[in-house]
């Protein structure tokens, strides 16, 4: 009903005289859907964006966690939302371009049912273990796995995420068999690796950076092509002998596909101003991520390109939803 009423109002020109749609927006709080539980990388970056928009643009942006099925539940909510600009979602490579190739019969297509608004940041994936673990290097893990296949476990934020696939791709590259333990988000996986209930965790760097800085976690490697500027002491998987290994993830804001272009442009422009602020850059880097600004069209092209690219990666990895 709300969707029909809004569209009817637009058709009838029911805005104040002389006031454009972009100028009238927003007139109420905006809901930012976070497709993972509190405490993970997606949640952290979502709340940074929401806070900075509230502080600097005076919008009221409320982060709302809607976790499940590798982040695809939250994406589904955004797809079904009224295209008014008052419901957006923090998507990432995990749920938008990897999940659709792992979860069969998803009722949406990221390139058709959502519009890419603003690329927020990218981050390497990091392989970590507890600081009390017997594993001090990635080589230790590989040697132990070869001596005792299927006895070493690694946790991830869930099936169907880039992070899960980073672990599977590494298994293939190293020729080892370690057992995946999926969780419903980064935080529960983190608690179990700290407690020693799983041997390793594959995580976004933002999710792990706090525990790494506290000394409770030990980083073994990052999976990106180059070292992170936030944690340059962590070697890359490629440096450790696995040539051309490169898996990272990105985060960005999306709106339902039918959202008016004026609103899409307004959101993009205001978010882009926030991303250029030095305090925002520092806050994102402190979480282990890197801001990467681009136009909405450039971001949309990245989503389409990665969507096709990761179809082949998923098929080659043999990864399946458990």
TrEMBL record:
Disulfide bond found in the keyword field: no
Keyword field: Receptor, Signal
Keyword Hydrolase: no
Signal peptide: 1-22
SUPFAM superfamilies: Periplasmic binding protein-like II
PANTHER family attached to this UniProt entry: BLR1237 PROTEIN (PTHR42928:SF5), TRICARBOXYLATE-BINDING PROTEIN (PTHR42928)
Annotated family: Belongs to the UPF0065 (bug) family.
The protein's name in its UniProt record: Tripartite-type tricarboxylate transporter receptor subunit TctC
């Amino acid at each position: 009903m709300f969707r029909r009423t809004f569209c009817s109002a637009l058709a009838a020109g029911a805005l104040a005289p002389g006031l454009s749609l972009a100028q009238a927006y927003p007139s109420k709080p905006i809901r930012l859907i976070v497709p993972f539980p509190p405490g993970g990388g997606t949640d952290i970056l979502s709340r940074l964006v929401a806070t900075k928009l509230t502080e600097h643009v005076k919008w009221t942006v409320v982060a709302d966690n809607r976790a499940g099925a590798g982040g695809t539940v939250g994406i589904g909510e955004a797809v079904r939302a009224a295209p008014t600009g008052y419901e957006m979602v923090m998507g990432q490579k995990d749920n938008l371009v990897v999940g659709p190739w792992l979860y069969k019969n998803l009722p949406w297509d990221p390139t058709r049912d959502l519009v890419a608004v603003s690329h927020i940041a990218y981050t390497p994936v990091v392989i970590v273990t507890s600081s009390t673990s017997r594993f001090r290097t990635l080589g230790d893990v590989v040697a132990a796995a070869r001596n005792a296949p299927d006895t070493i476990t690694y946790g991830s934020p869930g099936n169907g995420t880039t992070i899960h696939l980073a672990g599977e791709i590494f298994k293939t590259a190293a020729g080892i068999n370690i057992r995946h333990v999926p969780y419903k988000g980064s935080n529960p996986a983190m608690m179990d690796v700290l407690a020693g209930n799983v041997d390793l965790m594959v995580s976004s760097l933002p999710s792990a950076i706090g525990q790494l800085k506290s000394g409770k976690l030990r980083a073994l490697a990052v999976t990106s092509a180059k070292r992170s500027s936030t944690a340059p002491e962590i070697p890359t998987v490629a440096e450790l002998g696995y040539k051309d290994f490169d898996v990272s993830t990105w985060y960005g804001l999306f709106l339902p596909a039918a959202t008016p272009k004026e609103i899409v442009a307004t959101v993009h422009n205001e978010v882009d101003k926030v991303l250029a602020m030095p305090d925002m850059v520092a806050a994102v880097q402190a979480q282990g991520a890197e801001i990467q600004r681009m136009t909405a069209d450039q971001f949309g092209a990245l989503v389409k390109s990665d969507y096709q690219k990761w179809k082949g990666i998923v098929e080659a990895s043999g990864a399946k939803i458990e």
